[in-house]
Design a protein that fits this description.
It is a single chain. The protein is an alpha/beta fold. The longest helix has 16 residues, at 269-284. It has helices at residues 40-50, 65-77, 141-151, 173-181, 190-196, 203-214, 251-264, 269-284; strands spanning 4-7, 11-17, 31-38, 55-58, 92-97, 103-108, 130-134, 159-163, 185-189, 218-221, 227-230, 235-238. Helix 3 links the parallel strand 7 and strand 8 (159-163). The protein is 32% helix and 21% strand. The mean pLDDT is 93.
Length: 292
């Protein structure tokens, strides 16, 4: 049976509904909705767990108010805490949600930007067939080098899904080059692939250029238009499910988890993407940004 490792962060999302985003010098009144446990890795794991795929969550949980919230939630959900650490609190973000469901983040980083080599001693990388890595954890040069060094312990046939993140432009160029050279599957949206491949004119051209570098599937989410993909033998676009949008928090993360779960179950890439589209549609139609 295939097994996945989801590597990254567990955050606390402070979710506030706003009529519009504030402008410089302006003042907007918001409605505090909730404190939720999120973070890309946590949301990806939630999708895998929802699909009953075999997966482990490797996220540092530190010490402090936000770490305490994370620990309690993991315990309540019966999720194993594999990486209790000290030295800093977990990160959190202020998530501003507009009436159309679009979200904007103000992020306060925490222990998830302080990866250490010994953290990889908590798992055996050779046990995993699929590994999820988010671009958020590769912004810090020192942590990124630790993560990339750790991932070299994986089996040669293990597949890495690299979720670029909206902050792809903040990843040091030397780190991004190393990631792409590691023959990773790339999951991104239209804006993000434009930052990786600025010379391409269309999404299709950029995706094909990126595939030429990685020789692994490239998946580009296009919102309501679905997901475009290139895998070397087949190119296509899988339609999205049209649903009322309540909140887009966690939709992209859930999409990643759905793809990994589908591939683990033996689905071809288009069918795995179709499953991922269905799961992300489920998430945008609810208040919670995770299926866990």
């Amino acid at each position: 049976m295939s097994k996945a490792l989801v590597l990254g962060a567990a955050f606390v999302d402070v979710v506030v509904n706003v009529p519009r985003l504030p402008f410089s010098g302006g003042d907007v009144t918001g409605d505090l909705k909730s404190y939720r446990i999120g973070g890309s890795a946590f949301n990806v794991y939630g999708a895998l767990r929802y699909m009953q795929a075999s997966a482990d969550l490797l996220v540092p949980v530190g010490e402090g108010d936000y770490a305490t919230r994370v620990k309690q939630h993991l315990s309540n959900q019966g999720i194993s805490l594999k990486l209790p650490v000290t030295g800093a609190d977990n990160g959190w973000d202020l998530s501003l949600v507009e009436p159309d469901g679009e979200r904007s983040f103000l992020t306060i980083n925490g222990i998830e930007q302080c990866w250490k080599p010994q953290w990889f001693q908590q798992v055996q990388l050779a046990d995993y067939d699929y590994i999820y890595v988010s671009g958020y954890e590769l912004e810090n040069l020192r942590s990124a080098k630790v993560i990339l060094d750790g991932l070299r312990q994986r089996r040669p046939d293990a597949q890495i899904l690299f979720d670029t993140s909206p902050r792809i432009g903040e990843i040091p160029s030397e780190i991004l080059q190393q990631v792409l050279a590691a023959r990773v599957m790339v999951h991104c949206n239209e804006d993000e692939i434009g930052k990786i491949m600025p010379d391409g004119r269309t999404v299709a051209e950029k995706a094909h250029r990126l595939f030429a570098l990685t020789q692994r599937p490239v998946m580009v989410t296009l919102g309501g238009q679905g997901t475009y993909y290139v895998d070397g033998t087949v190119t296509g676009q899988v339609p999205a499910q049209n649903v009322p949008v309540v909140n887009t928090i966690g939709a992209g993360d859930t999409h990643c988890g759905g793809i990994i779960a589908g591939l683990m179950a033996g689905l071809a890439l288009p069918q795995a993407i179709k499953q991922a589209n269905q799961l992300s549609a489920q998430v945008v139609g609810q208040e919670n940004g995770s299926l866990s």
